[in-house]
């Protein structure tokens, strides 16, 4: 264990740069503890503490701009890949969309404190066309707050952190094994949570070709969109209803859909999440409310558009989407 502490002493800044960069790119390797430890080891050396903060912020900004560019170039498809890399629950996409839709770039100020939010928020900023200058401003401020808090805590509790390192050093190989076991447990817990969520939402699904075929035959199931309202306005499957509008009409979210007999051809629920996780959750909720014929749409709106089927959009959204310098490429 002594060699690891010596390594942090010798190459602490380089380790911090790589750790922050890799974590912000999506890998489930937490950088905050390393920032705290490195801040503690630097102690009261203000110059080195400021250099540490600057290096970590630059690393975070590089990674975030990569995801911003990816979101701008490839749209919503990027978000699912981030979840798979980070082992975060796929539902984090919908949560991020909700927060970013409400607060916009200001949400980047606290993004790095929320597990599964930072990388997705960066990609989402590119997807919805947030101007690069605005993104860089708020992302830099958010990185400063995140890194600064870790370094401050480390310097504030430097003696406590040093005592902990001394204990781990005294344990020798056992101390290193303890750190390794903690890291493996962290990864295993994230993987298990993700796997358990996906298993709990297994149910029959409907393909976009099947839905289009039903429509072509004059059979129109009730189609429910569970995405954010802004995404619904920009593009949606024809005749679909926004779940948020439905659920707000009554204390019981499903009550406006009653009676069950209104939906002779069933209900189809869609989103743009990997594995249709948000749609499956609402579908399960509707099943518990007595709706027997309800299925998530495989691939959601992205699959519908990729198959070349028609989409609807509000006129204002269509106008804004082609205005230079406003929202950029709008890919829900």
TrEMBL record:
InterPro entries to which the protein is assigned, alphabetical: DedA_domain, Rhodanese-like_dom, Rhodanese-like_dom_sf, VTT_dom
Q: Where in the cell is it found?
A: Cell membrane
Spell out the GO cellular component terms annotated for this protein, sorted alphabetically and separated by semicolons.
Answer: plasma membrane
Pfam families attached to this UniProt entry: Rhodanese (PF00581), VTT_dom (PF09335)
Query: What UniProt keywords apply to this chain's record, in alphabetical order?
Result: Cell membrane, Membrane, Transmembrane, Transmembrane helix
> Can you tell which superkingdom this protein's organism belongs to?
Bacteria
Q: How does it sit in the membrane?
A: Multi-pass membrane protein
Q: Does the keyword Isomerase apply?
A: no
Segments spanning the bilayer are 12-37, 49-70, 109-128, 135-154, 174-192
Q: Reply yes or no: does the keyword Membrane apply.
A: yes
Q: Which residues form the Rhodanese domain?
A: 222-313
Stated name of the protein = VTT domain-containing protein
The scientific name of the source species is Diaphorobacter aerolatus
């Amino acid at each position: 264990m002594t060699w690891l502490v010596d390594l942090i002493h010798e190459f602490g800044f380089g380790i911090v740069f790589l750790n922050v960069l890799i974590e912000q790119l999506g890998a489930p390797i937490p950088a905050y503890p390393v920032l705290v430890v490195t801040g503690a080891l630097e102690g009261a050396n203000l110059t080195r503490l400021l250099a540490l903060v600057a290096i970590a912020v630059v690393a975070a900004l590089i990674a975030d701009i990569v995801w911003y560019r990816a979101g701008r170039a490839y749209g919503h498809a990027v978000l699912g890949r981030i979840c798979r890399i980070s082992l975060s629950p796929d539902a984090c996409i919908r949560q991020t969309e909700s927060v970013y839709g409400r607060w916009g770039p200001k949400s980047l100020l606290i993004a790095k404190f929320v597990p599964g939010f930072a990388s997705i928020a960066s990609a989402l900023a590119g997807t919805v066309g947030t101007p690069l200058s605005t993104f860089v401003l708020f992302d830099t401020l958010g990185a400063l707050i995140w890194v600064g808090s870790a370094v401050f805590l480390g310097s504030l509790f430097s003696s406590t952190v040093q005592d902990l390192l001394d204990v781990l050093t005294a344990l020798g190989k056992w101390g290193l094994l303890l750190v390794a076991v903690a890291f493996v447990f962290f990864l295993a817990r994230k993987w298990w949570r993700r796997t358990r969520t996906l298993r709990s939402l297994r149910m029959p699904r409907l393909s976009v070709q099947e839905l289009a075929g039903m429509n072509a035959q004059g059979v129109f199931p009730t189609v429910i969109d569970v995405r954010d309202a802004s995404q619904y306005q920009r593009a949606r499957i024809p005749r679909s209803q926004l779940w948020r509008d439905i659920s707000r009409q009554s204390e019981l979210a499903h009550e406006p859909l009653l009676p069950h007999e209104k939906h002779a051809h069933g209900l189809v629920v869609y989103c743009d999440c990997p594995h249709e996780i948000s749609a499956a959750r609402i579908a399960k909720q509707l099943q518990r409310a007595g709706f027997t014929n309800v299925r998530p749409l495989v691939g959601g709106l992205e699959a519908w558009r990729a198959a070349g089927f028609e989409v609807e959009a509000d006129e204002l959204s269509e106008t804004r989407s082609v205005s230079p310098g406003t929202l950029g490429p709008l890919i829900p």
